[in-house]
Write a structure and sequence with these properties.
Layout: H1 3-22, H2 26-45, H3 49-53, E1 64-72, H4 76-84, H5 89-92, E2 96-101, E3 106-112, E4 121-132, E5 136-141, E6 149-157, E7 164-172, H6 177-186, H7 191-208, H8 224-232
Helix pairs in contact: 1-2
Length: 235
């Protein structure tokens, strides 16, 4: 939980705790005192039990952590080249609308804005912080970004000579802190599931040459080959 958010929650907790001790009915003292003590405890620990309940992973600075991995039956160098083409990332990550390459290290990223966010989309500039061919790509947003974020993609040999393990780790600071992350989660903006879907689609496209879909199928079920591919991709 960010320091500012902890301060606000702590101040509110102390206020309610004090109000509960000062008087009113026994029921009011119990409710206010309980809420005050709970919020104070949240501020002291820096961990929101509500965020934990909704499986929102955060570091001590309040940044949301998202990560997943998939095994793809292709060489690391080949997969690295696809991810290294930043302008092509929207084909891999569906929440991205476009990535404009500004120079060798800087790029401008645009994503569809969460529900209720003015403008319909959010953009920021990012810089590449690591580029190790066949092994790792990392980036982070530049100062002033509407959504501070960073990410990395790792390429590691998969056990049993089964290809390459592609590991994606994303970190971002949602507008509104923990509350903003919870609202996005409740509104159906599920970054973990989006990343999982993106990686599974990437695996299928690389191994099968296409992404199986249920569109146009009267039964609403994916083809058996696609289902088998999906189960095989669990890293």
């Amino acid at each position: 939980m960010p320091a500012v958010e902890r301060g606000v929650v702590g101040a509110l907790g102390v206020f309610l705790l004090t109000a509960g001790l000062r008087g009113g009915s026994a029921w009011q003292r119990l409710v206010l005192g309980g809420l005050g003590a709970g919020l104070t405890a949240v501020a002291v620990t820096g961990s929101s039990p509500v965020a934990t309940a909704f499986k929102v992973r955060q570091n001590e600075d309040g940044d949301v952590l998202v990560g997943d991995a998939v095994t793809v039956g292709k060489p690391a160098d080949e997969l690295y080249a696809i991810w290294r083409d930043f302008a092509g990332l929207p084909r891999l990550m569906k929440h991205l609308k476009r990535v404009e390459v500004l120079d060798e290290r800087r790029s401008r990223w645009t994503v569809q804005a969460p529900a209720g966010y003015a403008g319909g989309e959010v953009s920021w500039e990012a810089e590449m912080t690591a580029d190790q061919p066949g092994r790792r790509i990392a980036w982070r947003s530049l100062p002033g970004a509407a959504v501070e974020n960073s990410g990395e993609v790792l390429f590691r040999p998969a056990p049993g000579d089964r290809g390459t393990e592609v590991i994606v780790r994303l970190t971002y600071r949602p507008p509104g802190g923990s509350v903003g992350a919870l609202v996005a989660r409740i509104a159906g903006q599920e970054p973990s599931q989006q990343l999982r879907d993106d990686l599974m689609r990437f695996k299928r496209e690389q191994e099968l040459g296409f992404h199986p879909t249920t569109q146009g199928q009267s039964s609403g079920r994916a083809g058996s080959s696609g289902q088998n591919a999906g189960r095989g991709g669990q890293a």
